[in-house]
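Students often ask why we bother encoding 3D structure as a string. The short answer is that it lets us treat folding as translation between two languages. Here is a chain of 131 residues written in the first language.
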Amino acid sequence: MEIVLDTSAIISVIAGEPEGKLVIALTQSSKIVCPNIISFEVANAITRMIRKGIITNKDKIEDILRNLETIPIKIIDNNPRTSLEIAWNYKIYAYDAFFLDTAKTLNLPLLTFDDRMRVIGKELGIDTLGG
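And here it is in the second language, the structure alphabet:
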């Protein structure tokens, strides 16, 4: 089985957050799928953690990136038009729309810890996991 993971799910695993255990349990026998923006999204999440004071040691960044490299991720190219249509219709960031578009286009479940993404996913007919 394949499953789309958004940035919140990926970060929970690679940063050692408590939700990471749920992600691992839900994806243990699945293939992880992400849009091709995932590396940019992870980098952006890391900079947010730095700005919030969650990451205070530069070595932690290397640990997180090493953890990311251990996850086999199938990278998908999206059609920016359909992603931007979702972004327009729901007034969300394009980055979030790329994950929703990937799940919708491939008819795959989406694992996210973002409440708004789960609501929009359900409206788009996407099976959403997380919470």
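Translate back mentally: The mean pLDDT is 93. Keep this in mind for the problem set.
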